[in-house]
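[audit] Reproducing an earlier prediction to check determinism. Same input, same settings, fresh worker. If the tokens differ from the archived copy the diff job will pick it up downstream; this log only records the rerun itself.
[audit] input (61 residues):
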Amino acid sequence: TNELFWDELSDEQRAIISEAMMEATRFARLKADELNKSYLQRIRSSGMIAVHELTPEQRKK
């Protein structure tokens, strides 16, 4: 299992893998945010769909 594999790794190997996972996650989130902004801009500029954004108060709910 994955847990067995993980348990067999040294502390140094675990640290390297953990850092790589965090870096990959940050990169993926950044790219997803860029894509979301790009697609939202396309939707807005198409004029075919009205985009309504929540106010900060609405987001808190």
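[audit] rerun output stored. Observation attached for the diff report: The chain has a mean pLDDT of 95.
[audit] end
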